[in-house]
Amino acid sequence: MIRLILLIFALFFLSNCSISETSRIWNDKEEKIENQKNIKKLFTKQKKIIKELNPKLKLDLSKIKINESIINNQNNLGALNYNGLNKKNGTYKFSKIEDTNQLNYKPIFLNDGLIFFDRKGTITRYDKNSKIIWKKNHYKKSEKKLKPKLYFLQHDQDLLIADNIAKYYSINIKSGELNWSNNGDYSFNSEVKKDGNKFFVIDYKNTLRSFSLNDGTELWNFQSEDSFVMSDTKNSLIIVDNLVIFNNSIADITAVDKETGLIAWQLPTQSSNIINESYNLKTSKLVSDGRSIFFSNNKGEFYSIDVKTGVTNWINEVNSNITPSVIENLIFTVSNEGYLYVLEKKNGNIIRITNLYNNYKVKKRKNINPIGFVLGNTNLYLTNNDGKMIIADLITGKTNDTVKVSNNFMSEPFIFNKSLFIIRNGSIVQYN
Predict the structure, then answer these.
(1) Strand pairing report for 370-375 and 263-268
(2) What distance in Å separates the CA atoms of residue 225 and residue 214, rounded to the nearest whole number?
(3) Which of 419, 372, 381 is nearest to 103 (CA)?
(4) Are 370 and 384 in contact (CB under 8 A)?
(5) Which of 155, 230, 286, 414 could crosslink 421 through cysteines, CB 3.0-4.6 Å?
(6) Does residue 370 contact residue 399 with C-beta atoms inside 8 Å?
(7) What is the DSSP string of 396-431?
(8) pTM of the model as a whole
(9) Which of 122-126, 240-244, 353-357, 360-364 has the lowest mean pLDDT?
C-alpha cells in the first residue's frame, strides 16, 4: 500500500513539472546554448595568406653549373641543359593507363629513343623518331587484368622493373627478353635505386627491400611503421655514401646501412595522429646535396635534415608536395598555391616569392595545382593539373609563357639531351 501511495505521489510530481520550452529547466538549457553561440575562439590557427616577397629581386645565376645527367641517386638534378620551348618535335604513343588520375611515372631515356609501358604492362622501346623497335609483355593473362603500373631503373644493358602488383623482374634493353622474374610479398610503391650489385625499392607496407641485381634475390629488408590506410603518394628514397634514406606513408624519415639494412637513425616528422590520416598527407621526393636532405609536405613544412645524424637543421613554412631542386646555395620549389619560392640552403631563409599563377583568374586558381617542375639553363618549366605548362624566368621569377600541353592531367616535365618530355595519358610529347 505504501509503495502504491509513493508511486502515485511520484507521478503527480512529474506531471506538475513543466517540460515545456517555457520551464526553468529548459530556459536554462536554452540560455547555455545561446551563450555557446556567442563564444569566440581567441586562439585559432589561421590559414596563412601568401604574398609575394622581394618580387623585383634578380638572382645571379651566371656561375651555376649545368648538369648533363638525369640519373642521380640523390634526386638532385639541379639545372639541366635546355634553353627552349620552340616546337613540338615528336610524340610517342601508347594505350592509355587506366584507373589513375596521376602520371607519376618516368620513362627510360636513351640516346636513340625511350622506353615506357601501357595499361596492360606492355613495355615498348621507341627509336628517336617515335617508331617502335620492340614491344614485350611479361605478364600472365590474370596479371594483365590487374593493370600493372611500372617503375623503371636502367642498369647497363638491362632494365629493372618493379610494379604495383608485387612483381619485379629484369629484361634486356636491346631485345626486351626476360632475364629473370620474381614476386614480392607486397605491391611496390616507390622509386627504384641501385648501388653496386644491389637495388632498392619500397613496398606498400612501408618496407624497404634490397635485392640482388644479378637474379633478384632478396638480400635484406627493413620494416618501418605501417599505416592503416594505403596512400596514393609514391614513397621516395635516396642513397648518400653508405646510407639508404627513405620516407614512408606516415612521414617518418629513416636511414639504414646499405650493406646490412641496420638502422642508423630515424626522424618522425608528424604526430602519431597522422597514422590514421595518412591518406591526406602528401610529401615531396627526398633531395640531397650530400650533406643535407630537403623535402616538404602539404602540411606547410619544408625540412632540411642532416644526412649523417638525422637532426633537423631547419624548418620553414612552405606548403608544397612537389620535388624541390637545389642549385649551389639556393633551393627552388613551387607551393601548392602556385608561388615560386627561392630559399637559402644553409639556413632556410626565404629570399624571394613570386606568383606564377598571376595570369589565372582568382576563382579558377582554386582548382589549379602544380604537378612538378624541372629547371633548364635559366628557365623553370612547371606543369599543372589543367594541362598547361608555365615557363618562368629563374633570374626574375616572372612568368614568360604558358603552353597548352594536354586536355587533362599529365606528368612532371623531364629534360634529356636538350629536349623536354611530358607524359600525357596515351602519349609522351617531346619539345625541342
Answers:
(1) unpaired
(2) 30
(3) 372
(4) yes
(5) 414
(6) no
(7) T--EEEEEE--SS-B---EEETTEEEEEETTEEEEE
(8) 0.87
(9) 360-364
- Output the average pLDDT for the chain: 88
Residue 344 CB contacts under 8 Å (≥ 6 apart), including other chains: 329, 330, 331, 351
Does the CA dihedral 181-105-267-292 come out positive or negative?
A: positive
User: Cell match 645527367: residue?
Assistant: 69
Burial group, residue 147, by CB count within 10 angstroms (0-12, 13-18, 19+): middle
What is the rounded distance in angstroms from the CA atom of residue 383 to the CA atom of residue 424? 11
Total residues belonging to the chain: 432
- The rounded distance, in Å, linking the Cα atoms of 365 and 295 is 24
Q: In angstroms, rounded to a whole number, what is the distance separating the alpha carbons of residues 29 and 208? A: 57
Q: How far apart are CA 74 and CA 295, in angstroms?
A: 12
Q: What is the residue type of 389?
A: M
In contact, 201 and 190? CB cutoff 8 Å: yes
Query: From residue 307, how far is each of 87, 233, 255, 288, 412 by CA, in Å?
Result: 41, 23, 8, 8, 27
Residue 32 above 80 pLDDT?
A: no
Average pLDDT over residues 72-101: 89
CA separation, residue 67 to residues 110, 184, 349, 428 (Å): 17, 35, 25, 23
Residue 374 CA neighbour count, 13 Å, CB half: 24
Cα(173)–Cα(152) distance, integer angstroms? 12
